[in-house]
């Protein structure tokens, strides 16, 4: 798979789950309730991947929540798209390990894991290991220390510009 494929997957999934739907649901039920709902749907969408497991789906939901945090703090999807793209590219092409249960092909390195599933992720890949949630929590903590201000706004939250009309000259 070429690098462009990973960019397209990152763009498609982020815009599908954290773009318009997130914006629209946020206006009705709030940012974090819609983030939880859409992250659960993000996990459900990955549940059908060959070789996927419950631990892998939980990690995908946590990824979705992290991406929502990125959106909340930056006000746009680019951090989420970049992280998503980099994660998929790193697992699939660079390291040559399964990504959400999908086996790699045409990869740079061919990694083989042995050991218990909770450490290796088994058929799902590192995404289903105990290390991924830990890494995601560390990334979230570091990200919130750098990006402290919430910048995500919906149309309902954007302040209206009020201009006083110019006085009529007589």
Report on the structure:
The chain is mainly α. Helix content is 59%, strand content 0%. The chain is built from 7 helices and no strands. Helix 1 (3-18) runs parallel beside helix 2. The N and C termini lie far apart (71 Å). The model has no long low-confidence stretch (mean pLDDT 89).
Radius of gyration: 20 Å
Label the overall shape. elongated
Biggest beta-sheet profile: none
Helical content stands at: 55-70%
Q: pLDDT under 50 segments (min length 5)?
A: none
Alpha carbon gap, first and last residue: 71 Å
Category from helices, strands and their pairing: mainly alpha
Total count of strands: 0
Mean pLDDT: 89
Order of helices and strands: HHHHHHH
Number of helices: 7
Task: Give the key terms.
170 residues, mainly alpha, 7 helices, elongated
Describe, in short, the structure shown.
The chain has 7 helices and no strands. The protein is mainly alpha-helical.
Q: Which helices and strands appear, and what pairs or packs with what?
A:
Blueprint: H1 3-18, H2 20-29, H3 31-46, H4 54-74, H5 78-95, H6 117-120, H7 131-146
